[in-house]
Amino acid sequence: MSGNNEFRVLSPTAILGYGFPDASFKRGVEKKPHLIAVDAGSTDPGPYYLGAGKSFTDRAFVKQDLSRMVVAGVKNKIPVVVGTAGGSGGTEHFKWCYEILKEIAAENKLSFKVGTISSVVSKDTVKKALKDGKIAPLTYVPELTEQDIDDATEIVAQIGVATMQEALKAGCDVVLAGRAYDPACFAALPIMKGFDPGLALHMGKILECAAIAATPGSGADCAMGTLTKDSFILEALSDDRVFTTESAAAHTLYEKSDPYHLPGPGGEIDLTACSFKDIGNGRVEVKGSKFVPAKKYTVKLEGAKLIGYRTISIAGTKDPIMISKIDKVLEQVKQRVNLISNDPYLADGLIFHVYGKNGVMGALEPVKEITSHELCVVIEAVAPTQDKANSLCSLARSTMLHYGYEGRVSTAGNLAFPFSPSDITVGKVFEFAVYHIMEIDSEKSIFNYKIETFKDGELV
Amino acid sequence: MRNIIEVAKVIRSKNSGPYELTFDIMFKTHEDFKMFKDKKIINKEMFAELYKIPVEDILGIIWFEPAHAVKITIKRPMSSGALGETDIYGAQQHAPLFNIKF
Q: Which residues form the domain of B17?
């Protein structure tokens, strides 16, 4: 174990750009971590960001977080690993994050080697894998088709520990990875140093959310994990929170369908024999997490496709007569829109979100009776072009505003608009098209890394 | 009859990836966790009735002792962000669980 019997990992924040207090970070750096790591992404904010090549986090805050991490890492010779650059790890996301890194290097006149890993997989590679029967859908996902591959703006695969280790072995001080398996950024280096992969990955799984797994939880505060030969220890880095056996164990449930088996690239973390122990001072020791390699090495693929353009309008009603027959009114408005529009098929893209009725749960809402004294109606129009979406939304809005439903008493207008203009152009709409696993021989067959060197802030 | 709020300290929902919705109920004490587990108070039929969904749409119910928790995972009504979406993160689908009585 290269002479060290413990390995400390500092996780400053749950997502790059969520922020963290200076004091917690300073306390973390003073504990002399062997690694500073962060995962910068998620599919949680929906398919738009992957499809549109945009980050869901704010540039100024990403720069602030990354700057503090890279400056501290380079100054103290602590490797820094960043996964899922730009939030989704696609081509544009990666470029965006790399530009930020370049600015940080220049502004601080830093000298370091950066390893960059792209996670974009060519469509030809995915099509060949599909033909060879090497692609399988995840639960509830439809089978992948050639059409889905063509429709996806691009396809990213989750980078595991192997490629990050290659870059670290080559002497990189900073590793910037595209779409990555969240725990990999935290686990690559300790596994390379000989620490147990099950413990390292489980620790990574918890640290990727930083202090969310502490109590009270926070995604914008730092946490530290210390790996030993047969356990890992979690501790918070501010006096505001502690880790408890329950907070650490509970985190294992978060956003997962099975807390005992957590699948990832090349295998799964098996927590059936895992134990959590309070060792005092707000620290929790975790033992028994195992990594079970899979028979076939698989990586997860993600892709989103453009399905149209959106325009919305927000309005309210508190007319008791209209509220009592809202379903019928909306259905009739839809029919009117169909009748007036020259593009009758467009009404398929007309959706009414009715808050106060089932705006939050939609089809899953078990309460059928409306008890609210007012309703919010969000008119959503999705069409093949932005102009058509604008037209559809405008038509639906004016039709609903003046629609003479049966029993109407209030004849001046059916809706209260808080804003002028009342219609909001939202832009492109995406849907997930690829969410599958692909069998590969090894990470080398789809990922590689590139090294670039900064000297006094300049790329050389 | 008692309400689940008396014995649960966390009741939440969230996406588990863009195609699944997962619900967690964490109990305040080990005794209440064990009682719920032993009596199978939370089961597929009961959950399907609560959400008015077919039993086949429930992927699984897993009792997780280290956190005194039970996890229920179901098929998302649509993939996250697809046309007709109401809750991208799936974080506000938990309220019907407040109606569990035992």
A: 4-97
Query: Both A228 and A327 in a single domain?
Result: no
User: Residue-wise pLDDT tens for chain A (460 aa)?
Assistant: 445 699 999 999 999 999 999 999 999 999 999 999 999 889 999 999 999 999 999 999 999 999 999 999 999 999 999 999 999 999 999 999 999 999 999 999 999 999 999 999 999 999 999 999 999 999 999 999 999 999 999 999 999 999 999 999 999 999 999 999 999 999 999 999 999 999 999 999 999 999 999 999 999 999 999 999 999 999 999 999 999 999 999 898 888 889 999 999 999 999 999 999 999 999 999 999 999 999 999 999 999 999 999 999 999 999 999 999 999 999 999 999 998 887 766 768 999 999 999 999 999 999 999 999 999 999 999 999 999 999 999 999 999 999 999 999 999 999 999 999 999 999 999 999 999 999 999 999 999 999 999 999 999 9
DSSP for residue A447:
-
- Residue B49: list chain A partners with CB under 8 A: none
Which chain B residues are Cβ-neighbours of A429 within 8 angstroms? 83
| Cα→Cα distances A196→A7, A213, A227, A255, B5, Å | 11, 21, 9, 24, 40
CA distance A111 to A132: 45
Whether residues B64 and A431 touch (CB distance < 8 A) is answered with no
> A394 is written with which tokens?
């405008």
Question: Domain count of chain B?
Answer: 1
Within-domain flag for B102: no
Residue B25 within any structural domain of the chain: yes
- In degrees and rounded to multiples of 5, residue A144 shows phi and psi of -75, 140
- Residue of chain A whose alpha carbon sits nearest to that of B93: A361
DSSP A270: E
* Number of domains into which chain A is organized: 2
Query: What domain range is A196 assigned to?
Result: 7-119+158-294
Report the alpha-carbon distance of residue A211 to residue A20 in Å, rounded: 10
Do A331 and A263 belong together in one domain? no
- What CATH number is attached to the domain comprising A417? 3.30.70
Q: What is the pTM of this model?
A: 0.95
Interface of B with A in 18-47 (CB under 8 A): 18-20, 22, 24, 26
**Where does B12-85 have alpha helices with state H?**
30-38, 44-51
Interface predicted TM-score of the whole assembly (ipTM), two decimals: 0.95
Q: Do A432 and B77 touch (CB under 8 A)?
A: no
Chain B residues closer than 8 Å to A246 by CB: 26, 67-68
CB-based contacts of B49, cutoff 8 Å, min separation 6: none
Q: Which two tokens stand for residue A74?
A: 């380079």
Question: Residue length, chain A?
Answer: 460
User: Cβ B92–A361 below 8 Å, yes or no?
Assistant: yes
- Written as six digits, the tokens of A88 are 């989704």
- Say whether B18 and A366 touch across the interface (CB within 8 A): no
